Amino acid sequence: MPTDRRPEYFKGAQLRVGIIGLGYVGLPLGLRFAEAGHRVTGFDTDPGKVEKLNRGQTYIQHIQQNKIQQFVQSKHFTATADFSRLAEVDAIIICVPTPLDQRREPDLSYVQATAESIRPHLQRGQLVVLESTTYPGTTEELVLPVLESTGMKCPVAHGPEHDQIATDFFLAFSPEREDPGNKQYGLAQIPKVVGGVNPPSGRAACSLYAQIVAKVIPVSSTQAAEMTKLLENIFRCVNIALVNELKMLGMRMGIDIWEVIDAAATKPFGFMPFYPGPGLGGHCIPVDPYYLSWKAREYDFSTRFIELAGEVNTAMPYHVVDSVATALNERQKPLKGSRIMVLGVAYKKDVDDLRESPSLKIIEQLTLRGAKVEYNDPHFPVIHKLRHYNFEGMKSVPIDSKSLAAYDCVLIATDHTSYDYPMIVESSQLVVDTRNATRRIARNRNKIVLV
User: Fold this and answer.
1) Interacting residues of 163 by C-beta distance below 8 A, sequence separation 6+
2) Could you give the residue numbers annotated as active site?
3) By C-alpha distance, which of 201, 76, 69, 68 is closest to 126?
4) Which distant-in-sequence residues (6+ apart) come within 8 Å of 182 by Cβ?
5) Model confidence over 245-278: pLDDT tens digits?
6) In this structure, which topology does domain 236-450 adopt according to CATH?
């Protein structure tokens, strides 16, 4: 394995690529590199994941098991918990979680621990790329000092005048743009934004990613690449907050916001539809805005739009719970003691992803207010251990026309396409719909409350 790699080296065939973190981001990325003909070693601290992958099994629903089996059998993909094997690879890509703590401040402990795990095995000429979403400055302020403590240097330098700067290893940031369940845009079709600590690092990372995606977008620095991902998700967060607020206003005014959005979406320019819901979910949109708000305070700057959007979206699960209580009250039933079936705990339809799901907050708040809550989700037979909720072991309850009739309220929290919505409305006493999943049902509209 060459020790004096140059940026152009990463254009070569049959590279050895190490992926740290084999979750919703890292596993698809590793399989894509394997598909392009490279040798991939996946690193994870969870021995259960490692064992499953090496047996050719999947634990993420939308990732096909036969694809894993194919690359394991061809030896283009292997998984390990032995981080000393990082010394064997040409490029190391970090795909670990960057959650918020209970104070809604960035928790970079996973990134810090990963950088520390790379340090004793870092080789001269290796490329290290951080993909985990974070605030601008993380790559240079957190990852770089840890790696440079080896004695090897990767000088921070921006601009074409530093194109030939000497560097012992390469370091870059390239934000993940994974969208689980999206059948239209897969990893290979989504352009990859890349920013290096210096020009050689940027070129090395561009050379690497150009082999697996249709287009690479180089930017001037790691900070610009880090900010790009935040802008993408803050844009969505702010616009979702806007339609959530308009939804609540429309409810008071007797206006169907879904009808309004559909009408506005017919304009062929200057408008992009966003849709209201029970709150934000997933690993990006509920989290990313707070990363920038936190970093902005270092510059004595208040991100008022971002913080207001966060307030609106954070309040939505509580709005849903209040709406359930109101709907039951209108039927002369108290929330306390009522039996409630929550349909869907995934953060969006047709995925097996619970991260930051608003359904979890809704279940928690309904339970705290005395309701007897059960859930159904075809993608989650059992709720696994969670960071902020004590639902571990809670099981999905089967539903049919007879069982639904026994609940005081059926709450549609996630609009999975597998649900038979006409049957649900027909069988239920009351349906509270947070996703407009019942929009095409004409019968029994008196049972449906849109919130």
Assistant:
1) 199, 200
2) 284
3) 201
4) none
5) 999 999 999 999 999 999 999 999 999 999 999 9
6) Rossmann fold (3.40.50)
